[in-house]
Amino acid sequence: CPECKKSFSHNCQLVTHQGTHSQDKLYECPECKKSFSHNYQLVTHQRTHTGLKTYECPECGKCFSKNSNLVTHQRIHTGEKPHQCPECRKSFCQPSRFLSFALHLSAVVSNGGRRGEIVTGSELEV
């Protein structure tokens, strides 16, 4: 995204995302007055007020407000880990966990001229 530098794997995702930067936010939440450029964003947002969680895991019964969250959750039961580090081949069930790991791996310690050490915990600077 030229506006915020966020990356997407598909152009249609970029186009949808760019609407979040648009001044034309025609869909307003009657509850909190937050506005959105697409109706589906408003519908999804309104679930935060109603607590409606229509997507239930058939394995354990846990419910989610978004189908994508259910899909990610189900990987706990299946063991699927589709996000893999190209360097070490470690796999992750969620992209966010992979990104945290990537930040962890790419952090460099400039201590005594040593570079490339793996940094943990509070040493990690983002």
Automatic annotation (TrEMBL):
Top-level division of the source organism's lineage: Eukaryota
InterPro entries documented for this protein: Znf_C2H2_sf, Znf_C2H2_type
GO MF assignments: DNA-binding transcription factor activity, RNA polymerase II-specific; RNA polymerase II cis-regulatory region sequence-specific DNA binding; zinc ion binding
Transport recorded as keyword: no
Localization (cell): Nucleus
Gene3D superfamilies: Classic Zinc Finger (3.30.160.60)
Entry similarity comment: Belongs to the krueppel C2H2-type zinc-finger protein family.
UniProt name for this protein: C2H2-type domain-containing protein
Organism placement in taxonomy: Eukaryota, Metazoa, Chordata, Craniata, Vertebrata
